[in-house]
Amino acid sequence: xxxxxxxxxxxxxxxxxxxxxxxxxxxxxxxxxxxxxxxxxxxxxxxxxxxxxxxxxxxxxxxxxxxxxxxxxxxxxxxxxxxxxxxxxxxxxxxxxxxxxxxxxxxxxxxxxxxxxxxxxxxxxxxxxxxxxxxxxxxxxxxxxxxxxxxxxxxxxxxxxxxxxxxxxxxxxxxxxxxxxxxxxxxxxxxxxxxxxxxxxxxxxxxxxxxxxxxxxxxxxxxxxxxxxxxxxxxxxxxxxxxxxxxxxxxxxxxxxxxxxxxxxxxxxxxxxxxxxxxxxxxxxxxxxxxxxxxxxxxxxxxxxxxxxxxxxxxxx
Length: 317
Description:
Blueprint: H1 3-14, H2 20-37, H3 45-58, H4 61-66, H5 76-82, H6 87-94, E1 102-106, E2 113-116, E3 122-125, E4 130-134, E5 142-153, E6 162-166, E7 169-173, E8 177-182, E9 188-195, E10 198-202, E11 205-209, E12 213-218, E13 223-228, H7 231-235, E14 241-248, H8 249-260, E15 263-266, H9 269-273, E16 275-281, H10 285-295, E17 297-303, E18 308-316
Parallel strand pairs: 5-6, 15-18
Antiparallel strand pairs: 1-4, 2-3, 3-5, 4-5, 5-8, 6-7, 7-10, 8-9, 9-12, 10-11, 12-13, 14-16, 17-18
């Protein structure tokens, strides 16, 4: 029986206007409720007395005079509510659906994951990231939580905003595509828009972003800034492309470590400061390392156990 039908039948029963067919449907439903909640209990007069007292206490005075004693079976659903015996009765009378189960998806370093949410929105989760979302969204908002990096292609629904929470930053969209890099280890969170419009906010600070704009949230100062960028360079990771633009080898090591699930060690601090520019399209780690030492003469790499790579020598252009 649907919740709306149950409520209508129960109201009619209490004000004595219920039709015979409706009363039979209510009785059938009540029997099922009783069997569910009291299946493992031995039914005796104590249960009946307790229920009768609860019902009479809840009814108006005039109703008590007309019906001083009720059939237990005919008002079982009221009993369930009055005695606090079930989530179903709570839902029926309060119109408050139970929260949808939350799903958590994670990726290890070196992994990526494609997801499709209940509303049709598509997400590509980068390595070393965590995303949380409900099994089904409610009627007013679509909300997820992100730690790490992901690209979102949000299904359009003007009446139901899509919200991503990343630590203290809130990103709101109606239907668009964008990238969020909210790595817990970074001092800043970057939101980069491909299509549509995105709103980012934290406290009293907010900014609206359009295609080829990037919003930067500084975690330490809680400030938001934005700039114009080339969106292609920020979305290449989705296609397996690694790009380095005058990056230090320390930065290169962090990115490669996350991409391939490896750890880099440096023979000396000077090697970390060496800068490198290059682009790799779906290349393996061995190919990338060989390209790196070819460009940087004097640099040597050695693959050790436990996914450790040692960079040594002297870095020269």
